[in-house]
Design goal:
This protein is an alpha+beta fold. It has helices at about 5-15, 20-25, 25-50, 115-125, 130-135, 135-145, 165-170, 180-185, 190-200, 200-210, and strands at about 55-60, 80-85, 90-95, 100-110, 175-180. The protein has a five-stranded antiparallel beta sheet with strand order 1-2-3-4-5. The radius of gyration is 20 Å and the shape is elongated.
Length: about 220
């Protein structure tokens, strides 16, 4: 499990985001990182019991400064990303551990143009199945609503009077559950993250079916 010392270290790193401080506290970082990595691996292993997953991706603490205006050398969070096994399964799980900004999320951060068009065509014909998934009690309790970047105007080829105009404008499809710091250090936090990821499955299964079939419902993969 995570504890307050992990959050405290990240807070201290945020206040001292420089190489001399980090090098001086490298032993403490290595200890924290090892413990957090074990926590994240346990989540991955539990999730594997009910889903087919790509290898886990635990993000490095070192920032890529090559194309960034922010030259602070270290990230101030621990995070993971887990993709579902392509091509038949779509969606990805994400967990961010950060003082004041911890969250579990899932969805499609940068959908391909073909997937975006296929999704829009589907919900333009009938958005009822997706709306039912998003309005289910568990989805609303955990995530609230579908979020993500949106177009300001109507996407080309679609009618502004469509009943699904709110969905058609989406450029990203994300569901996010946020956790306060006291929740992160609770004994059952790992189980809550897994339960949150399980709650994404109806959305992922719907999106997988849509994005792996054509408009006639025929598989794109034979």
């Amino acid at each position: 499990m995570l504890n307050q010392t992990h959050l405290n270290f990240l807070q201290q790193l945020k206040q001292n985001n420089n190489r001399p401080w980090f090098n001086e506290h490298k032993a403490a970082f290595d200890k924290h990182y090892s413990e957090v990595k074990a926590f994240l691996m346990n989540i991955y292993n539990l999730l594997q019991d009910t889903d087919m997953l790509e290898p886990i991706h635990i993000h490095r603490i070192y920032r890529n400064l090559q194309f960034s205006k922010d030259k602070t050398p270290y990230k101030t969070h621990f995070s993971l990303h887990i993709g579902r096994t392509k091509p038949l399964l779509r969606g990805g799980y994400f967990l961010n551990i950060e003082p004041g900004n911890s969250f579990a999320a899932g969805g499609f951060w940068k959908p391909e143009a073909a997937d975006l068009l296929r999704f829009r065509k589907e919900v333009n014909i009938d958005a009822t199945p997706l709306r039912a998934i998003l309005s289910a009690k568990t989805a609303v309790r955990y995530f609230g609503a579908l979020v993500g970047e949106e177009l300001r105007t109507v996407p080309a080829g679609f009618n502004k009077d469509s009943d699904a105009i709110d969905l058609l404008r989406k450029k990203q499809w994300l569901l996010i559950r946020r956790f306060a710091d006291p929740e992160v250090v609770q004994k059952d936090f790992g189980n809550e993250v897994v339960k949150t990821f399980h709650a994404l499955r109806p959305f992922f299964d719907y999106m997988s079916e849509v994005l792996t079939t054509d408009e006639n419902g025929e598989s794109l993969f034979g």
